[in-house]
Structures are given as structure tokens and as C-alpha cells.
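LOG
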Amino acid sequence: MASMAALNPYGHLIRSARTGVTYLPRRTLTYTVPRFAQEDGSNGSNNQSDSPQPKGGALSSIKNFFFGGKSAAEKPKITRRANAPLKREGSLSADSIFAEDEASPKLIASGRTPSRRTAAQPTEGEEEAEYTYAVDGRNRETMQTALDPRPNARVRWERKMVIREVRRRGRISKTEQILRTERESTSKSHWFKTSVKKLGPLARQIAGKNIDEAMLQMRFSKKKAAKDVLEHLQHAKNVAVVRSGMGLGAASSKEVTITLKSGQRKTITDPTAIYIEQAWVNRGPYGYDYDHRARGQINMLRPPYTSLSVVLKEEKTRIREWQVREAESQRKRKTQLWTQLPDRKISAQNQYYSW
């Protein structure tokens, strides 16, 4: 007992003081707005007065803790954190393509349109110097690694193109002429949940037909995949019209009757009408499905996926191909015609050998 009293001489005082104190549960963890203490004093020094504060002993600190003793020091003031500075917005560079030479009023409340910055003019008494901005003063040598990574290859390619142009004397090849004068659009569909064996007949059915006629065929087809093919044909037609400008001509009074590769005769009134030149099927991935059978058995199914690709062209392409075929067939017929031999005397004819 003597040793315990020596270790805690104020034990009886603490036990007597805690009898009138109510127990408060510990607070849970909550989020509070961060506050910062602002202490009085000059030059940001701590809250210290000129006169020294008396220091209490252990008994006075315990007494203040249980009986609400007040400290002589003034409590620090609590203030909220200042608002963040306003965001600074950047501006366009001097060589930006979105800038305008002259600023013009805009129809929105944000202000006027961005304009190109002009170089500052030197004042009087100041020597003329080159006023440039940091954006304009770019290092071209550093940028050449991205703009011209292989200068030797570029020079060789330019030399090759010049030689080719000189040899052709400005004439373009037949393939280049066709690409410049005729339009074409290729479109591939997404994956249909069907097989190549089921989608192949539909692709052969629409190949060679006018785009509108092919869409009509798919609209009244009884095949399950015909609905997906119809949606893809509509999408392919829209892409051809918007991106390539196909099918925007008007029907002419002059009709052209041609013979197709299959031998069928066709009359064309609009040379810009769109038709399906090619249609083929692409084999895709295999999915996973389950077949629930009797006695709790489940079989794994691997349903195939297939896509459809179409090449759309205009009727003028079919007219050109027919003209090429007709010219080729006519040339072959002319080479096979029998020609009369010249009327001349036959000499040096002997029934025996001359040796």
C-alpha cells in the first residue's frame, strides 16, 4: 500500500472527483470542415504576451481538468480557408488556324472571336529589334525529326516521281483514270448470328442488282438473315451518298441498252444509279451457347457469326465495262476474218527435194 500511494499520491483525490462527473461516450469519426487557427501577434509569431505567464504545478493542472479551470492565455481564433484563385484561361497562338486576322463580334456572351497577335512596335529612341513570341520561335531542327524522319528516302521518292512523270509525259495510267472519273464505295457489316451457308445465297441474290431492287428483295424475303442484310444495305447506301456523292444524278432521256456478263440485256436510264458490283460473305468468330437437355444435362453450342461486304458502284461503270467488252470482241472477230490472197504467179514449186 505504501508503494502504491507513493506511485499515485493523488489517487484518492481523483476517485472523489470522478463521482460527480457524467460519462460521455467517445465520438465517432466524422468529417468536419478544416479550420485553421489564426494567432495574434506581430510578424506571424506565436501567441505570446510580453509578460511571462505563471506555470502551475501538477495539482493545479489536474484541478483545472476536472473542475473547469480557465487558462490565462487567449484562445486562438478560427477562420475558414480562403477561396481558391480564379482559373486562368489560355489563348491561341499567333500561328493558329482558328485565329482571325480581324476580330469580329460573336453572337455569344463570352466576348469577341480570337484574333492574331501582332508584334509590338519599337518605341522612339529604342533600336529596332525582332519582336517574336515564344510560340513563333520554334526550333525547326528539332521538329525535323518528326516532320522529315528519313530525308534520304524522301529525296529518292521525289526523284522517282519526277522521272516517272517525265517518262509518261504527263499521261496517267488507265487505273488512275478510272479512279478519277468513277465512284466506288465499300462497306462491311457487323457480325450476324448466322452461318456462311445461310448468308451466302442472300449475297449471291443481291449481287449485280440495283441497290433499291436488292433492298426490295430483302424486304420480302422469308430468310431470317434478310432483315440484317436489309439494314446493312440501307447503311451502305447512305454512306455511298454522303461520303462519295453517288446516286445524285438525274434520269436522262437517252437510254442505253447494254449486255451484262451473264448475257442479260439491261436498259439504263440513269448513269449515276447505284448498283451492287460485288457481295461476299466473311467468316467470323464462334460464340458460346447452352443446350439444356433432359436429366440435367447441358450441351455446349458454338453458334457461328458471319458478316457481309458489298462494293457499290454507279451504272456508268457498267456502261464502260460493256464498251470495253464490245471493243475487245470486235477486235478478235476482225483478226479471225478470212482475207483474199494476192493474185500472183506461183513459182519454185517442185515435187522433189532440191538436195
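LOG (cont.) second protein
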Amino acid sequence: MQAIVATDRDAGPGGLSLAELPYPHAAENDVVVEVHAAGFTPDELDWPATWTDRAGRDRTPSVPGHDVSDVVADLGYGTTGLTPGQPVFGITDWARNGSLAEYVAVEARNLVPLPAGVDHTVAAAVPISGLSAWQGLFDHAGLVAGQTVLIHGAAGAVGSLAVQLAHEAGAHVIGSGRTAHRDTVMDLAADRFVDLQQDRLADVGPVDVVFDVIGGALLDDSAALVCPGGTLVTIAEPPRFRPERGRAVFFVVEPDRSGLATLAERLHDGRLRPLVAATCALAEVPTVLAPGHRRPGKTIVTVADGA
């Protein structure tokens, strides 16, 4: 099968290349899926699990990509709940070869049925970004109706879904981003936009929750915006500064089948609309995902015919 591989830790997305690899083996409770569409997070090339297995052994060449929308091809020993030919979507395992390939082996518990009428390209933009948004807002920050949340990077893959989920939950949503992202963020039902190139961040607060996907100085400055009892939550890096009378949480998204099912319901009935920045074929990945080509939303790789 054809797959995109990473072999150089220091090369970044520009070091990805197309290669021929063996058909994957389905271990116990695995499924092998035929990939129709896949997502890629550039930061994953910095994750230790991209380069080593759970025992710390080198596993290059490594196939990146952990968002996937696909069709079940084969079942491993003992696998139940899914059937060959069934459309599914979800997350591939962190320390195994990923979704930028024609086929990938995945733990069955990390997949859920793809709702009828949902395109593979749309579904592949949701798993990691959607679970990151859901877990950050509700599991870690405890966001509830009537609270105010500031979402940094609101036009991005995670931030755009966080805006929609927070709005649906009844929160007052403030989205931040570059000047060019204003219309995109407001179209997602944000109540207010903060232009990080022109507006003063200090004028925003206080807020109950800050959800950050950017890190750096923006994360540092955001701690002062959190009101007493509020939460600063980030997926970018551990915060250096904590709110004076609130909490600071850094987390890494976790696979969650029930969470995926919740997102699937919202996809099916139109309550959740991921931003797909662009699509490309598997062979185009080394060029399209190279530095300098990034844009708001998520770039989705279409693999199988008809994806």
C-alpha cells in the first residue's frame, strides 16, 4: 500500500515523503480500515510517540496522521461491534502508524459509526480537534450556560469547533484571531471578536474560561483575564502563569468513544460544522503540508476513490 512516511525528526512537514509499505496487521481487538479521508496535525511531528513505540524503540519510518474517516476492511481476533464494509471515523493510536495511508490498523474502541449523510472529508476534520475542544471546555473547564469564554485561535481547527460547542452550551463566546479571521469567527456564532493584531487583550476580561491553542506570550497574558473561580485551559504548553484566584490546566486530548459519538450526533444534525481549509491527494501531502501553506481550518487528505 502507499503511505506518507516521516524519517527525519528535524525536517518537519517538509520532510514527509510517499512510500510503499506492507498491508497492516490487525492485532487483537483491532480493525484494519480502508482510509477515505485523513487529517494531519503538524505538531505531531514533535510528539515522542511519532518516533518511538510504547517501549521506547525507534519506529521510523513512521506514518503520521491520527484523524481518520474510513470503511472497515478486516477485523482482528476478538473484535466486536463493527462489521466489514461499515463506514466509521475516529482516532488512530498515538504510538502506531497513522492515517496518511491507504490502510491503517486501529483499536476498535477508538472508532464510531459514521452518521448517514456525513461526508468522509468532513468527518476526518473532527476527531482530534472536536475531542480537544469538548474536553477542554467541559471536562477540564466545566463551562456552563451563562459563563463567558475567550477562545484563542478561534478560526483554527480546534478553536472553530470550540466556538460552536460553547455557543450551543449557552455561553457568551469571545473568539480571538488575526484581522483576516474576523468574518470566519463571527460566522461561527461568536458573540465578539478580539483582533490580536489591533485590540488590547487586557481590555477583554474578566472571563470565566480562557481556552488557548496558541501558547507563548498570549497564554502568559491570558492568566490575568480569568475571574475568581475561573479556569485557564490550554493544549499548547504548560502555563507559566496561573490565574490569581483560578485554575490553570494543560492537557493532551484523550481518545474517547462516547465523546466521538456525541460529536457524531452534532455532525449528523448540522449543529457542528468543521472548517476544512483545503483537500489534497495522498501524493500531494509533502507539498501541500510543507511550511508556508497553512491556512485557517484543517487540511484533509483524501485517499480512497470517491472520498
